[in-house]
Amino acid sequence: MTSDTETILTTLAARGETLAVAESLTGGLLAAAFVEVPGASRVFRGGIVAYATALKATLLGVPAPLLDAHGPVDPSVAAALAAGARERCGSDWAAATTGVAGPDPQAGQPVGRVYVAVVGPPAAHGEPERVEVREFTLEGDRPAIRRGAVRAAVDLLAETLAVTLTP
Amino acid sequence: MTSDTETILTTLAARGETLAVAESLTGGLLAAAFVEVPGASRVFRGGIVAYATALKATLLGVPAPLLDAHGPVDPSVAAALAAGARERCGSDWAAATTGVAGPDPQAGQPVGRVYVAVVGPPAAHGEPERVEVREFTLEGDRPAIRRGAVRAAVDLLAETLAVTLTP
């Protein structure tokens, strides 16, 4: 994982762009995967772990009606979390995770249901800002689901940035 | 580590109190050490990884003059980070880390210099709010220093809460 996050940070550094994250079920693991790279501070600005649902609104600006209507585990919420991290941390790019790590289902979503999102600047002048959201149903126990969600966010970020990761 | 953070969360749950964190060099690892405990959501509200110095002011309300005068690796900044997490996350308790993980010294502080802080409600009526700050000089490489800072924050929190951790 370190080599993948290092590749992403190196790519962003070469482009003069910065990164932030917003996390729910991964609870800091996504931020940690970037901060473990020496020199991360050139690119990685910070992250917000909005574990309690109310903090998704107060810390990251996710609209409360969206949370009320869809619950915290939802593709629109994932996109809003990433947008909030990008704005509050003043970064070019942001990635976000939300999902159900278990042991119990949450807000009508099963254990293992995960949404990851990436937001960033337009690919070309005149195009809209990039917003990518992906849904997963991950297998395994709580640690496996959390690790899988980090992996999914890193992969979506790499794909959106057109960075090829070493298999 | 999981059993220690679980003990702390169980103690706080029994007291009806909540927890948040603010992190710099640990970059999400402290939050992750709590979120990995099943049922953490009863107690753990969230965390803010203010990795870029400017975010310590904007996301956590650390006074900019304090950052300008002392740099980000400073005992007063550690206390202000914890106080900011407590206020912004609406928790009873907060723990914070700041320090130099390396590979290079930062803002006049050597690699391995770490400050951890814990803030919380008064121990008794009429007493001031609790503010505990501790300085460490940790040995080892970047991962070891980051792990040591998480350990130090968990230990200071346990000590402040008068929780006995299993050795």
Provide structural commentary.
Chains A, B: Pfam families: CinA. Chains A, B: This is Competence damage-inducible protein A. The first copy, chain A, has a five-stranded mixed sheet with strand order 2-1-3-4-5, with helices on both faces. The termini of chain A are close together. Chain A is globular and about 40 Å long. With 167 residues, the first copy, chain A, is an alpha/beta fold. The first copy, chain A, has six helices and five strands, in the order H-E-H-E-H-H-H-E-E-E-H. Helix content of chain A is 41%, strand content 21%. The first copy, chain A, has a single domain, classed as CinA-like (Maf protein), CATH 3.90.950. In chain A, helix 2 links the parallel strand 1 and strand 2. Chains A and B meet through helix 2, strand 2, helix 3 and helix 6 of A and helix 2, strand 2, helix 3 and helix 6 of B.
What is the compact description of this entry?
Chains A, B: Residues 5-161 form the CinA C-terminal domain. The structure is a homodimer of 167-residue chains. Chain A is 41% helix and 21% strand.
Keywords:
CinA-like_C (chains A, B); alpha/beta; 5 strands; CinA_C (chains A, B); 167 residues; five-stranded mixed sheet; Competence damage-inducible protein A (chains A, B); 6 helices; Maf protein; 41% helix; homodimer
